[in-house]
Amino acid sequence: MHPQQARVTDADVAQLESEIDRMNTELPPLRSFVLPGGGRLNAELNICRTVCRRAERATVALGRVESVPPEAIRYLNRLSDALFVFGDGPATSRARRTLWEPNQSSSGLTVDNRG
Tell me: domain 37-94, CATH 1.20.1200.10, correct? Predict the structure, then answer.
């Protein structure tokens, strides 16, 4: 690694965690999964989150054969969580978010899954 190359540090991870905590204080507790969508910004942040998760998995796999800084893996993990929280925040119209309702059909009717 080149000495002038940027590196992710524990301070970077802590800063991201702090931002996630700050954003979470503005959100009601989740009682269900949030489905992707709810507007263009929400959708784009969800795509970013899934790409970040993919990068995290690839970095973990690389770490099995090469030396990978653990801070990089932690940062990718926290970044994907941050992208989720940002997508569920006030700036993205969380009023339009769709929660997964396991006992509701797409028409809104209750579904009896008891067989």
Answer: yes
